[in-house]
Amino acid sequence: MLKLTYTDNSFYLECLTQSLEEWVAQRVILALRVSQSLRVEPTTASFLLPLNLPGVERLKTEVNRHDSEIMGLCKCDPEYLEVTLDGSWLSDGNDDAVGVFVTTMSYSAEFFLYKLWQESQVCASVVTE
Predict the structure, then answer these.
(1) For 86, phi and psi rounded to 5 degrees?
(2) Which end of the chain is more exposed for a tag (fewer CB within 10 A), N or C?
(3) What distance in Å separates the CA atoms of residue 32 and residue 104, rounded to the nearest whole number?
(4) Which InterPro entries does the UniProt entry name for this protein (predicted)?
(5) pLDDT digits over 43-62, tens only?
(6) Is the pTM value of this prediction over 0.90?
(7) DSSP calls for 53-114
């Protein structure tokens, strides 16, 4: 399962071995126990990956072969590829952009996408330093 945690000005991607159903069930139980509102709704989430990352071409091949109904890829400009995922959005019900997006696909696709995202973060931190 992939989990994207969105904050006010960024997001963080995690690759979890727990099933989507187990994770959502635990999150619902937690919300009940702490009397917190929880909204779960189907939606999509998108983020950018640099086109020059090693492995982007392999990702395109994997998506076309196995996960095209869950993940979409679109070259949005000369430098970046937009990754769009189908899944579920969990939030406290406010209309802000703070919450958690979860999705599931083949483990190899999840892990590969996670590794590409990690590599993009390393590249971004080198550029800013």
Answers:
(1) -90, 140
(2) C
(3) 24
(4) Alr0857-like (IPR054664)
(5) 999 999 999 998 888 888 88
(6) no
(7) STTHHHHHHHIIIIITTTEEEEE-SSSEEEEEEEEEEEESS-SSS-EEEEE---HHHHHHHH
- Give phi and psi for 89, each to the nearest 5: -105, 130
Within 8 A by CB and 6+ apart from 13, the residues are 2, 3, 4, 47, 113, 114, 117, 118
Residues 44 and 70: their CA atoms lie apart, in Å, by 9
Identity of the residue numbered 91? S
Greatest distance between any 2 Cα atoms in the chain: 48
Q: What angle do CA 117, 118, 123 make, to 5 degrees?
A: 95
In angstroms, the CA 97 to CA 40 distance is: 14
